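fold-stage: in
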Amino acid sequence: MNPALAQVLERGDIRRGDAFAVAPAPTLASGFARLDAELPGGGWPRGALTELLAEHEGIGELGLLLPALAALTAAGQTVVLIAPPRAAHAPAWAAAGIRLEALRLVLPRRPRDALWAAVETLRCGGVAATLLWLDELFRRQLPANSLRRLQVAAGEGGGAAFCFRPAQLAAAASSAPLRLQLQPAGRQLRVQLLKRRGPPARQAILLDIARPADFSPRVSHVVAGAVLPDAADSRRRTRVAA
């Protein structure tokens, strides 16, 4: 190999196409050894956006994140849910190992408020992980450059960021450095890595996912959270970690 080329390849900001990139920030173990082996840095990226493209709701997409979220909340770190399609049923989340006092809900009243809340929450250094469901509010079509804004905000805050989107958008362009397509496979979850900072994944992964009986609310026992009524209000509403 040309000595000058070899010297360039030794730089930390240069990546070969057949190798994983050096993780720019610490990662968060997913709790699934087979998945971590396929993720650059050995876990979910912090300070970057991860897209989870599920075939439909309730196939185990939340179960894929539960081990990591449980570890974060056990350490007293804050996890924020923004515009979830269903209210969080407290007993189910607690049974999954989530400390409820570390869980926050943000329930915007309008689509533009949801995107604003997502950007501001991702910028917040006190939030360890943010889960976003925005497409349903925007009728599955986010405004142009929205994902880029979310990716930049995640880099500013440094927490893990997960955006749930429909599987029909798998072929769409995205600023997220990590994209996973999720499909049910009997009692397992089929995970296809569509995009990562490294060589293309050769095959899908089958994971045994714990599926709590019910994440939807019953008559009561809904996790308390914050409602952001209007993006024009003071930025103090973004202090969800307080």
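fold-stage: in (second)
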Amino acid sequence: MGKLTHFDGKGRARMVDVGAKAETRRIAVVSGKVIMKPETLRRIMDRKMEKGDVLGVARVAGIMAAKRTGEIIPLCHPLSIDTVEIDFQPDVRRSEVKIETTVKSTGKTGVEMEALVATAASMTCARP
């Protein structure tokens, strides 16, 4: 296993210095799924949930979460995000909704944490 980058020589947590890195195009894709009762999925798809447009709200929550990742995940750099795309793929046969999040940025550090946080927030809102 390689060197842990978020710890200094004395084992103390630190934010990685990315100042000397060149800006490059960064893309991260994360997926997750929410499993639920068949009736719940039908109600979500028919937009008959008391919460309203569950997947619409979940998409907005995920986008907002991605934009605030640097505030909620320790040692994460605040990033300028170019786009967050969140796609929901309901599977009636399995009674689940697959969530796929793509985050893109041009910068000095990756957007993996932003994609993970966006997916987690979307999953939380999409669950029954």
